[in-house]
């Protein structure tokens, strides 16, 4: 890991939340208001240190709320100017990890929904509710 480019950058990055981010909480509140119950930070079986942001375990729907920076959003991705090589590798690994997680869950019979942090929470919740209800009806 490279040295931080400044003390301010280091302080800001250390405060980044891993869970319970504002977009995640917005989606969870809307889901709860619609009567859906779910698990938060649910551990993925067979994948150490990986969790599903919002899991509907009976319907087998895994929801991830992805940050535009950390997951390289095609619309809003940015990269720090300092330590460019390190950040390029780090963000590429994040993308590869997301793909591996998706594949692992698909093989286990799960439906994966990925939502970008910039998406409208109401629209995201509509997609989630539609999928959960459809899968519940099938079982």
UniProtKB/TrEMBL annotation:
Region (Disordered): 1-22
InterPro entries membership: DNA_mismatch_endonuc_vsr, Restrct_endonuc-II-like
Gene3D superfamilies, A to Z: VSR Endonuclease (3.40.960.10)
Transferase is among the record's keywords: no
Pfam family, one: Vsr
Alphabetically ordered keywords of this record: DNA damage, DNA repair, Endonuclease, Hydrolase, Nuclease
Name listed for the protein in its UniProt record: T/G mismatch-specific endonuclease
Annotated organism of origin: Nonomuraea polychroma
């Amino acid at each position: 890991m490279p040295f931080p480019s400044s003390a301010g950058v280091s302080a800001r990055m250390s405060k980044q939340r891993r869970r319970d981010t504002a977009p995640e909480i917005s989606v969870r509140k809307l889901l709860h208001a619609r009567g859906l119950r779910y698990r938060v930070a649910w551990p993925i079986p067979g994948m150490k240190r990986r969790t599903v942001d919002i899991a509907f375990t009976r319907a087998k729907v895994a929801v991830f709320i992805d940050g535009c920076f950390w997951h390289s959003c095609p619309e809003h991705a940015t990269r720090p100017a300092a330590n460019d090589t390190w950040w390029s590798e780090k963000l590429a690994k994040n993308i590869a990890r997301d793909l591996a997680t998706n594949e692992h869950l698909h093989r286990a019979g799960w439906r994966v929904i990925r939502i970008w942090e910039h998406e409208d929470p109401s629209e995201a919740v509509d997609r989630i509710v539609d999928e959960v209800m459809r899968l519940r009806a099938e079982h």
